[in-house]
Every structure is written in C-alpha cells, then in structure tokens.
Amino acid sequence: MADANANAPTFARAQRYLGDRVSEALDRLDPAAVATAVAILARAPATFVYGAGRSGIIGRAFAMRLVQLGLTAYVIGESVTPIVRRGDAVFILSGRGESSSSIQTANIVRREGADLIVFTARASSKLAHIATALLTLDFPEDPDRARFAPLGTLFEAASLRLTDAIVAELLKARGESEESMRRRHAIMV
Questions:
Q1: Alpha-carbon distance 180 to 162, whole Å?
Q2: Which domain holds residue 153?
Q3: Could you tell me the CATH number of the domain that includes residue 100?
Q4: 91 pairs with which residues across the strands?
C-alpha cells in the first residue's frame, strides 16, 4: 500500500502513524478486562507499579496519578516501597512480558497473594499466563513500524494512554475531581 503522505515531513508521518496504531490497538482492548483491572485497583489497600526501562517511566507516572486520586501507590524498586501483601494490587507494564525482573516480581506477587494486573503486547507471554487481570495489545508488524516507532515505542505510547484512561475511570468511580486531585499534587521546591 503506497503512503499517500510520502512527501510529508517524517515528523508528520510518524506522529500520525503513532496515533493511528495506538488508537487501533487500544480500541481492540477487551472492555471486561479493563473493568476487572479498574475494580481491582479501586478495592486494593495499596497498588504497586512495576516496569523496566521506558515502561517503568510510564509506570511511575501512573503511580503518581493514583496517589493524586487519593489511593496508596508505590513504585517497585524504590527504597521506601514496602512489601506487597494479600489483597494489594500489582500493576506490571511489560511489552514482551518476558523480562526476568518482571517475572521475578510477578512470582513474589503471587506468593504473597496479591492481585496481578499485567499490561503487555504479548498475550502468550509468561507474565500473561499468571495475571489475575490481563490487558493485552496487539500490534501487527508492518514495514513502517521500525522507521516511525522503533523498539517498544508503540507499546510505551499505548501504556501512557491506557493508564491515563484507567485514571479517568477511577476518578469517576471514586467521586474525585480534577480539583481534589490538584490538592494532592506534589509541590516542588
């Protein structure tokens, strides 16, 4: 299929490609799986978030928003993060779903009896098989991906949109508002 915008600047083509591919993948998410994940997060005494690399950066942003919603949230790997306990929720972002650190984290979560929410681009991954709630995306390979969205770019862009959309669901479920979140926003000195 010829690219109708072949003469457009790379930036314009890349941002359109990213937006379209991420939107298509998120539109295919199972609404029941999203509802299950939201319910787990809403009832958990504490939520722990984990991701390696760029997924971890997005996980940190998600944990921050959970705190701003009035929930208790931690980033796994920080020195002040306590041990996960039965009833807690752990949200792991992992594009491949096979990294040893993510699998090790998931094994601890299962041993301690917490609920495991996995967001991955590989439904057949090791992490996917042990999830309490599985949110999975599919990005069919195409010739433009490596040029406009190298490495894990599509998954990472989708991760930010997914977690922000989950925040919107929790905002509604908890009767919160932007103003109540703003009051919990960290003040930087």
A1: 22
A2: 10-174
A3: 3.40.50.10490
A4: 49, 117
